[in-house]
Amino acid sequence: MRKPASLQKGDTIAVVAPSFGIRKEEHAILAQAIKNLEKKGYHVDILENVFKSDGLGISTSPESCAQELMEAYVNPQYQAIISASGGELMCETLSHMDFVQLKNASPKWFCGFSDNTNMTFTLNTLCDVMSIYGPHILDFALMNKCTREALGMMQGTCHHTSDYPYYSLDDFAKKPKIITAYHHGQKVDYVQMKGVLLGDAWMY
């Protein structure tokens, strides 16, 4: 699987909305996220659909969402892409995407989760390119372990990830390494794995 080039200071990150966009009430959070990324030495370009809300279960029309994402991915001006938000109907953009063109383009990092699995998973499976099932742009307003690791992966400084505090189990070393049923909001058991991880961690 091809690994995108690491972000360098001075690079530009595009923010796209292939699913939901960003509401007016979230603009202050977005401003803080941009500020945090700029402090790290990056430029942030917020693309047009991020502020649209005329779509149904998506920021705007599937055609426009697909076009914006395609253009950002093949545009050499951008070295990475972060999604604006999750949503419901990003699947409707897929028939408007040219995955042959994406596969032939220079690989770049795409970071997002939930509905953005439509991009993270297809980049892995159809384009043989690594992606990050990780935070949306608003999450970067708070530089915690999750956002630091996601940015570190894009920078080439983070090569593995582990648990996050909400699901932490302090005495895991005393427990057998088994996989047990997952109950949202409760502690979990740990297993160690190595290899390429594909899929979606979205749960209801």
Automatic annotation (TrEMBL):
List the Pfam families: Peptidase_S66
LD-carboxypeptidase N-terminal domain: residues covered? 13-134
Q: List the PANTHER family.
A: MURAMOYLTETRAPEPTIDE CARBOXYPEPTIDASE (PTHR30237)
Q: Which organism is it from?
A: Intestinibaculum porci
What is this protein identified as?
Answer: LD-carboxypeptidase N-terminal domain-containing protein
Give the SUPFAM superfamilies listed for this entry: Class I glutamine amidotransferase-like
Origin superkingdom? Bacteria
Tell me the InterPro entries matching this sequence: Class_I_gatase-like, LdcA_N, Peptidase_S66_N, S66_fam
Where does the signal peptide begin and end? none
